[in-house]
Amino acid sequence: MSMSDSGRGVSAGYSAGPNTAWSGWVIFAATMMVLVGCFTLIDGFVALLNSSFYGTTYHLLLGNYQSWGWWNLILGSLLVVTGLSLFTGSLWARIVGIIFASVNALSQLVFIAVFPIWALAVIAIDVVVIYALAVNREVA
Questions:
Q1: Which of 1, 14, 86, 112 could be disulfide-bonded to 119 (CB atoms 3.0-4.6 Å)?
Q2: What is the greatest pairwise CA distance in the chain?
Q3: CA–CA separation, 115 vs 66, rounded Å?
Q4: Does the pLDDT value for residue 74 go beyond 70?
Q5: Nearest Cα to 117, choosing from 129, 126, 108?
Q6: d(CA 80, CA 39)
Q7: Is 138 helix (H, G, I), strand (E, B) or coil?
């Protein structure tokens, strides 16, 4: 190790592409996508294990809470895997990330009658993720 390498730290060898201002947006989008995926997984587990948590006065537009729980488990898993794949800086992960974030935002519209504030918060995070992935013009 030379004197010039001593202050660089452990992450000095990591490079997921060109280091520009847009690469920070992709890392932010990846982190938020993993977070939203975990939130969606939790929603799915709650719908499957304790459907009375959501109350019985509201009915979902497309099915019951059991199908909603399975849908959220599948979509949440896909969001987490795609979010982790975004850390590699690959173009395919950005395209798939835009698609899955869009599907998640649309699926939250089904849930908006049950928990409107929560659904709007997740939709807002999805919109920011889509923006961060779509505006970045770098090709990995």
A1: 112
A2: 68
A3: 17
A4: yes
A5: 108
A6: 10
A7: coil
Q: Is the confidence at residue 98, as pLDDT, over 80?
A: yes
DSSP H stretches of helix in the chain: 21-49, 65-86, 91-111, 116-135
Give the pTM: 0.76
**Alpha carbon separation from 27 to 107, 125, 126 (Å, rounded):** 24, 14, 14
- Structural tokens at position 127: 């919109």
Exposed, middle or buried by CB within 10 Å (0-12, 13-18, 19+), for 134?
Answer: middle
- Closest residue by Cα to residue 75 from 48, 113, 105: 105
pLDDT digits (tens, 9 = 90+) for 14-37: 344 556 666 788 899 999 999 999
Where on the phi/psi map is residue 102: left (φ > 0), alpha (ψ -120 to 50), or beta? Answer: alpha
Length of the chain: 140
Both tokens of residue 70?
């399975």
CA distance 59 to 65: 8
